Amino acid sequence: MPLKFPRRIRFITHSLPRTTNNLASFSSGSRAYHCNTSSSSPLLSRIFSLNHLAIGPHINFSSRPNGGEPRASRSLIEDEEELSNWVSDLRPGSLRVHLTSDDDDDDVDRSRGRNQGFRGTRNKVDSFRENLFSDRDKGSNFRSSQSSFRGRKERSLGRDREGYKGLRKQRRGDVLDGESSDEDVKSLVMGGIGDLLSEEDEEEDEDHEFLKKKAASAFGFDKEKGVEARNDVKSSDSYLTKTRFDHYPLSPLSLKSLNDAGYETMTVVQEATLPIILKGKDVLAKAKTGTGKTVAFLLPSIEVVVKSPPTSPDNKRPPILALVICPTRELANQAATEANTLLKHHPTIGVQVVIGGTRLGLEQKRMQTNPCQILVATPGRLKDHIENTPGFETRLKGVKVLVLDEADHLLDMGFRKDIERILSAVPKERQTFLFSATVPEEVRQMCLVALRRDHEFINCVHEGTGETHQQVRQTHMIASLDKHFSLLYTLLRAHIADNVDYKVIVFCTTAMVTKLVADLLGELNLNVREIHSRKPQSYRTRVSNEFRKSKGLILVTSDVSARGVDYPDVTLVLQVGLPKDREQYIHRLGRTGRKGKEGEGILLLAPWEEYFLSSLKDLPITKSSLPSTDPETVKKVQKALCHVEMRNKEAAYQAWLGYYNSQKMIGRDKERLVELANEFSRSMGLDNPPAIPKLILGKMGLKNVPGLRAK
Ligand SMILES: Nc1ncnc2c1ncn2[C@@H]1O[C@H](COP(=O)(O)OP(=O)(O)OP(=O)(O)O)[C@@H](O)[C@H]1O
């Protein structure tokens, strides 16, 4: 099997490789290749798990342009169907590790002769690849089939790293086939590799010396001499670095604004990305929550605007030079606020926000009367403007910098089509940054369409430290549903008693469950606010601002507050019920422990949700015993539940059912799902589960399931 490596890979980290026992190993015979990626200094594990064969936190990889015909308008959703077909076509065992760059034929080839099975697969990958990705530079920027294949293979080989374990499988399952089990999907995707991985462990020690030498020579560095250490991405738990902003050639007015904001030295992600971005590179950056990603992308974007020639005041459609896309309205507002902080001493540069939930006409007017150079937007509303605001698309033709913030969430939220539309509206000649605390496979795919081929992946999440903060104590509790409300109340009361300046976020599974919990806690006389998608935007913004500034407050919220929202000094994040996935757990938890501060996270699950913990295995989360809830408390909670409006309970029941129905592990057994939903109904104090409109039951695929009441 030919094993080939791209030639232009740069080692940036200082931390490669320290130990040997984590190294990937090759073996002969049918077991082609193995990466054990579990801890601190994996070498090839890094290579294979990062998007571009990343070998350190920061890597540059270029591959030869492919002359294939681009299909600019192809949708990623259709592409996923194609991926599904492609995967279904694969017979287990047909997939073999093959890392190659087309121009690297003379590179490492340890196992020639074992690649026959792969050839056919590779052709499929080639054709899949050609179909999959639209071309940004018309013929010159079309990534090679190998990088696409690498992505899939990395997903498999690197799954122990970056927390891909359970989640990867789950996500693949969602994308590929609603009925497939996770294991089915894994075995399909991994083909022969999966089998090999499990067999390789005992050969690891024997092979790693060989492997290290191979890898060292293949990547052009000598382990004795060490690696080139250009950008030292330090452990992300040291929040600030010693590097001052004035170390870099930033405009004096930006430096003045930074100084006024109290930003003296850079955070880890800022230090790691700024020099690369200032060089004009596209960047994919992964950094833990609350570590200053917003400034990391805004500051260089502002510098691009500063360096652009001023627009004539006569220009009726002045260009938008920097476009920032955020998945939620809260995040967009927050990014614009941060931009204004950084623009304090740039009187000629303006920033505006366009977000859903506000009147399009008002935004149109505002943009017309006071055109800005920096626009922060949510994808849906931006697409609306592209399609409905005269001259807006012309203004977008001036975009020099495009930022996709919380890139994975943009995809999660079903914004693919909108993003595609946006990408087609901005110039191909631009700089693009993708920032996120988690970088799942979907983001890697998006990189292929949105970033230039030679972009750099800057990973500030140090190997072995996990994606969450060490200073945030994480625990989980398992209790039957009927105890959840009392437990929640008990936990909150205990936390309030221990923390005078408490500031708690309670995450619930859906908007209507959020409403129910907020109502209940309000009835229990706790100081509560709620934010979810059913609330008007003006209300959400007001509550968000209030919570940002407050202490002694509990925010009950759905996932609209899970990502990016910067509430300082949150003392506790309490997640009730199953988070949507591992990433969402991490992002929600990331609302506490920001800027290096301490924090606490509690995940409260029912026994049948316990399986979710396997996707958090690599995180420092421990089991906690249940606090005792005295009968008085239970009574009090039950009484409070009686005061919660019936229609809120009905809505919560229906939403609960919908949410868990969409959770593969739970939703696949409909009868069991309904049993659990009815348990939830009883936990709200209802003797009978609320009736649900037949139409909705039909849509949920729950018609005639015993235990449900239809109306
Ligand atoms: N260099 C700096 N020095 C001090 N504070 C900073 C610096 N850069 C950013 N901050 C502050 O750090 C906080 C967290 O920043 P930010 O919200 O950008 O984090 P994030 O990495 O985007 O988090 P998330 O992943 O949750 O979105 C903000 O209050 C921001 O103002």
Automatic annotation (TrEMBL):
It catalyses: ATP + H2O = ADP + phosphate + H(+). Residues 491-638 form the Helicase C-terminal domain. Residues 274-457 form the Helicase ATP-binding domain. A motif (Q motif) lies at residues 243-271. InterPro entries: DEAD/DEAH_box_helicase_dom (IPR011545), Helicase_ATP-bd (IPR014001), Helicase_C-like (IPR001650), P-loop_NTPase (IPR027417), RNA_helicase_DEAD_Q_motif (IPR014014). Keywords: ATP-binding, Helicase, Hydrolase, Nucleotide-binding, RNA-binding. CDD domains: DEADc_MSS116, SF2_C_DEAD. Coiled coil: none annotated. Belongs to the DEAD box helicase family. The Q motif is unique to and characteristic of the DEAD box family of RNA helicases and controls ATP binding and hydrolysis. This is ATP-dependent RNA helicase.
